[in-house]
Recover the amino acids of this structure.
DNA sequence: TTGAAAGCGTTACCAC
DNA sequence: GTGGTAACGCTTTCAA
C-alpha cells in the first residue's frame, strides 16, 4: 500500500504538504500543487494509514457500541442506526456483546482504550458500576442508551450523556391508545425485575389510568423470567402470564406489555386459551421490534425514534471527544405509536384516524 | 496511559525486554525479571497500545464482518457467534452493513485496509464482484459466508474461503421430516430471485421427493418480493403466497419455506384463510431465526450450525493472515433440524422420536 | 506557500 | 539473558 511519502514523491512535494491536504489545510495552497497531490493520491490508490494517524493524534475514528446481545432485535436495530450515523461522520463501529457479564464489559472497555477508541455507546447497562466510572475518569467518553442508571442525579452533574426514550410517555401512550379505542380495563404485564425504565413505563401507565378515572388496583401483572434478558425467555414468560391475565380479578379487556417479546409470548398463550386478538383482547407492545410486523395479527407497538437518537448520540460523542470539558447532558425522546392490528377497532369507527 | 517505556523503567529493564514479555518470548528469561515486569505492568495498569503494535506489525487484531443488515436476525445470530469466536482469540469485530449497496461494500473494504484489518468475513454477497477481487489481490483475506458465488470453481482454485451450510442437505432434511411425519404432498415455497443457495435447497427438496417416488410436477411455488432481502418484505411475500399454496393443483398438505421469514408470513396468510397449522397444513422453515421459537405454533426449522461455522471462519482467517500462501478452502456444514410444533404428528405416534 | 525533522508506542534485529 | 536502536506512517511545529 502506498504511503504518504510515495504520494509526496509522486507529486514532487514534501510530506508535510500532502499531510496538509489530508487535513484540509488547503486554503493557503496553490491550486496547482493541490491538484498535483490529488492526482498522485488517485494514481497510487492512496488511503491514509489510520493506525499511524491514530498513534499520532490519539484519535481512532472508531466508536465502540456495547450491547447486551446483538441477537436481541432492539439492539440490532440500534446497531444499524448507530452504524449509519457513525458512517456519515466517517466513523466505524466496534461491536461488543456483554452477554450481561461484567467481565465482558471490562474487557471491552480495556480493548477500546488499547485500540485508541475515545467514545463508547453503552446500551442498557448500569453505568454506576465501578469499571464504567473508572473508564470515565481515564477519559473515555461514554453515552448511556436506554439508561438503567438511577433516575435522580442527586443535583450533581451527570457523569455520562444519557439518551433514552421517554419511558413514562411510552407507558402513557400505549394505554391511551387502548382507552381511545374504547378499552375500559387495561392491565400492564411485565417482567418482575425492577429497573428504572420499567418503573417509568409502569408510572406512565398508572398515571394515564388515574386521569381517566380508572381504579388502578390489581392492574400490574408480573412474573419472573428464568433469565431476565433473553427474548426467548421473555416470550416464554408471556406465554405463562397469559393465564394470569385471563384469571385476573379486574377482568381485563386489554394489555400493555412491557416489551414486544413479552407481548408476542402473550399472543401465543392467549391464542391457546381460546382468546382471540384483537376480538377478545387488545394488546400493545413497547419497542417495535421487527418481529412485531411479522406476526399475525400485527402487533401495535410504541417505538423509540431510533434514528434521531442514534444521530444525537454520535453527535454528542464526537463533540465531547473534541472538547472533553463539554458537560454531559441527559436527553429524553418522545416515543411514537405504530398502529397495527392487535387493538380492537370500536364498532362503526375507522381505527385509522384514532 | 502508561506505555512500554514506563513499564521498563518501573521494572528497571529495557523496553526490548518488556516487549519480549508482551510477545511471549519469556522462555529464555530469568524468572525474577519476568516477575518484576509483570508486577510493573500490573502496578501501572499497563495495556499495550494497539495502534502502535499495528503500525509496526501491520496486524490489527480486528476482523471485519460485513453483512447485508444486522437487523436481519440470521445475521445478528451470525454476528454474535463471530464476536464470541473472535473474542476467544483476542480479536475484536468491526461491523459493516452493506444495505445491499456496492458503494457500502467498497467503502467498508477501503476502511478495513486503512484500519490495518487483514481479514474480513463477508456474508451473503457475490464475491465475484470486482471490488472483492481487487481486495483479494491487495492481500485482504476474505471468507465467504453463505456464498452466493457460482457453485463450480471451474477446476481453478477458489480465491476465497467459502463456508456455508449444506443447502442441498437442508432442503432434503426439511422435506424428509415432512415425509417421516406422514405428509404426502409437500410443496416448496420460495422467493423467485435465483441464487446458488436457493438452487441447492430446491435441488435437495426435489431429490428427496423423487427418491420417495413422488411426482415433482408443480411443487415449486414462487413469487417476487418487492425487495428480495428484507425480512419484512419476505414475510409479506409469504402472506401473499399463502393463497397460491391453497389453490395449488397438487393439493399440498405441507410446505417447506425457503426461509423462516417467508414461513412466518405463510403462517399468517394461512391462518387468515382458515387453514390451521399444523392440523391442516404442516410447515418447515429454514434458518431457525430467533423468531421461529416465539411464534405460535413454534416453527420447525432447519438450522446452520452457526457456532462451529463461526469458529472455523475465525480459525481460517487467522491461519491465512499468518500464512497468506495457505490456500483457500470450501467447507460445507451439515444442517440440524429444530423440531417445534408446526408439523403434524401422525395419529398414535409420538412425534418426539421421529 | 512549502519543507525538515521530531516524535507517537511498539517491534525486532543485532550487539553485548 | 538483556539492551540499544532503527524503523512503521503520520502530524505538527518551526524555519525558510
Amino acid at each position: 500500500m502506498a504511503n504518504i511519502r510515495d504520494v509526496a514523491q509522486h507529486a514532487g512535494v514534501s510530506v508535510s504538504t500532502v499531510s496538509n491536504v489530508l487535513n484540509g489545510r488547503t486554503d493557503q495552497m496553490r491550486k496547482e500543487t493541490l491538484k498535483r497531490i490529488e492526482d498522485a493520491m488517485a494514481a497510487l490508490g492512496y488511503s491514509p494509514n489510520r493506525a499511524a494517524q491514530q498513534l499520532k493524534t490519539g484519535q481512532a475514528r472508531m466508536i465502540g457500541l456495547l450491547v447486551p446481545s446483538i441477537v436481541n432485535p432492539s439492539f440490532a436495530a440500534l446497531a444499524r442506526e448507530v452504524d449509519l450515523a457513525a458512517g456519515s461522520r466517517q466513523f466505524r463501529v466496534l461491536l461488543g456483546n456483554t452477554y450481561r457479564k461484567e467481565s465482558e464489559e471490562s474487557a471491552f472497555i480495556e480493548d477500546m482504550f488499547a485500540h485508541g477508541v475515545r467514545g463508547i455507546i453503552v446500551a442498557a447497562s448500569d453505568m454506576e458500576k465501578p469499571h464504567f466510572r473508572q473508564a470515565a475518569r481515564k477519559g473515555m467518553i461514554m453515552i448511556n442508551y436506554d439508561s438503567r442508571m438511577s433516575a435522580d442525579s442527586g443535583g450533581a452533574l451527570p457523569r455520562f450523556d444519557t439518551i433514552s426514550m421517554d419511558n413514562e410517555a411510552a407507558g402513557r401512550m400505549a394505554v391511551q391508545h387502548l382507552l381511545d379505542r374504547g378499552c375500559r380495563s387495561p392491565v400492564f404485564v411485565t417482567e418482575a425485575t425492577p429497573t428504572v425504565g420499567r418503573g417509568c413505563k409502569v408510572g406512565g401507565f398508572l398515571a394515564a389510568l388515574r386521569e381517566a378515572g380508572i381504579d388502578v388496583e390489581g392492574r400490574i401483572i408480573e412474573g419472573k423470567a428464568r433469565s431476565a434478558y433473553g427474548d426467548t425467555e421473555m416470550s416464554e414468560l408471556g406465554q405463562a402470564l397469559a393465564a394470569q391475565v385471563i384469571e385476573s380479578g379486574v377482568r381485563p379487556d386489554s394489555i400493555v406489555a412491557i416489551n414486544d417479546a413479552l407481548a408476542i409470548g402473550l399472543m401465543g398463550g392467549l391464542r391457546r386459551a381460546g382468546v382471540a386478538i384483537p376480538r377478545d383482547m387488545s394488546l400493545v407492545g413497547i419497542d417495535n421490534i421487527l418481529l412485531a410486523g411479522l406476526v399475525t395479527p400485527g402487533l401495535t407497538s410504541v417505538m423509540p425514534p431510533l434514528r434521531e437518537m442514534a444521530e444525537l448520540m454520535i453527535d454528542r460523542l464526537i463533540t465531547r471527544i473534541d472538547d472533553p470539558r463539554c458537560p454531559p447532558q441527559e436527553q429524553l425522546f418522545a416515543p411514537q405509536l405504530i398502529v397495527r392490528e392487535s387493538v380492537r377497532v370500536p364498532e362503526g369507527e375507522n381505527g385509522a384516524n384514532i
Summary: The CA atoms of residues 228 and 234 of chain A lie 7 Å apart. The domain at 167-304 of chain A is CATH 3.40.50.2300 (Rossmann fold). Chain A touches chain B through 52 residues (CB under 8 Å).
